[in-house]
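protien #1 (seq + structre)
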Amino acid sequence: MKLKFLGTAAAEAIPALWCECEVCKKAKALGGKEIRRRCSYLLDDDTLIDFGPDAYWQSVEFNIDLPSIKRIVFTHSHSDHLNPVDLFWRFSPCFSFVSKTLTVIGRPRIFGRIIEHAGAAGVSDFDTLHLKRVPAVPGERLLDGDLELLPLGANHDPHSDPLVYVFKRGGKSVLVANDTGWLSEESWKLLEGVKLDAAVIECTCGIKGAQCRDGHMGAETSVAFRKRLVESGSLAPDAPVAVNHFSHNGGANHDDFVKYFAPHGIEVAWDGFTLEV
């Protein structure tokens, strides 16, 4: 299983659109790994995890053939993870020629935002956009083709219906946990007995907010999150772990994060980074 990071930033991106902070100034000056689009992923060339405002840029930069994508799995309904505008261009034959149905997996609020935007242009059904809705229910495994998903409730804005997911395919599994603070005990319990081959852990609050653990996580909490996965037996001590979903408000650039996390056996993701198990 191969997970490519298409974007590794929080909502404002890095450098943030309007920001004059030192992190953004350094990112502009250095470029490369410092340039972070809004967070999303490509799983095994057929699955997108989130579809935000940088989707077009990401599809071109990373040579993604969007018509070959079978499904989009949404973590929550915030606009940096869900861009209904670019899903509306699936309206066929008005804007595009679309012959394949795209499965959309997520909570009801996801579906509501998509159809709300389409409805403003007179489209009131998912069939017109060639979309198929598959509800994700926390704690209930679902199978779409050969991909198995375990959605878990996230600690994030409750109005966004937030989830994190375990993805399993071909005997391998990976946890993708961004846009969440420390998980509830209910979600931790659901992870007990789940064997993970890799994990992606969020770090929105960075080093400046290292102890943040409600709604988002900081660097210290990200380390503790990995430690709990290992101690629970879900994750082997040498399994690959990467942190992701960085905000410029976290007060750190890429090299700062690398120095912080290296002693803890955690890699720092960048746009284009690939985690393979």
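ok now protien #2
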Amino acid sequence: MIDLHTHTTCSDGTDSPRELINKALSQGIDVLAITDHDTTAGWSEARKAVRGDIELVLGAEISCLTHDGISVHMLGLLFDENNAPMQKLLEETRDGRIPRMKKMIELMRAEGMNISMEDVEAAMPPGATLGRPHLADALVKNGVIASRDEAFQGLLNNDSRFYVSHAAPTPEEAISIIRSAGGVAIIAHAFASHRGQILGAQDFQGLCDAGLNAIEVNHRDHSDSEREMLRAIAIEQNLVITGSSDYHGNGKLNSLGENSTDLEQWLRLESQANARRVVKA
């Protein structure tokens, strides 16, 4: 089983990198990618935790914005962690999250909601990348909402009046930097319409021209018809087709390995990196 999209406590997951690898081992995952939001902070711990037959793929999920303000998430896998432009991109994207969070809190407090920046910071594991899930956890703790899922269906949805975008690269810029760092680029949950405004089929040509390697087709936020549309785009553009859980631990309903990538597709994707960087025991 191959799962190419998961999160740890280094961003908005609830399992540490070590705990996630242990869980993957117990559930028979053969290839696991750790893709925390805008950070490589969990890579060192994850490397040390590898044992048995599992293969570890290190990466990051980069928050992007199109020129029209559409939120796009780009998975970068197998890139050189010492590549300076890549680390600069991740750092700048992380920095943009702080003023964005303060503005969202300000909008909520203006409508009488019991929430503060201190509440959100208390909900973050040490060293984690700040994100909306931490705001959701703080809102749950303060009794404003019942769960993270409820938050993302309403208050924190991309179309919500409380949603605030942040400084971020365009998807094309992110792809270019991932590829220049020797990695491969996968667009994540591209047709997850319940999250807000999404790309159209016509937008993929520009991503392909920038060097896109793959499309995450099989994801719980895609309907059967959306999966078929994405599969058709991938075949037309000769892109790799992936499937992933987008696992966050207890933070979301997504189960580890609930969607997976075919071995043939994974081997094709892995071969497109400029060096062999899969971590093995």
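The longest strand covers residues 55-65.
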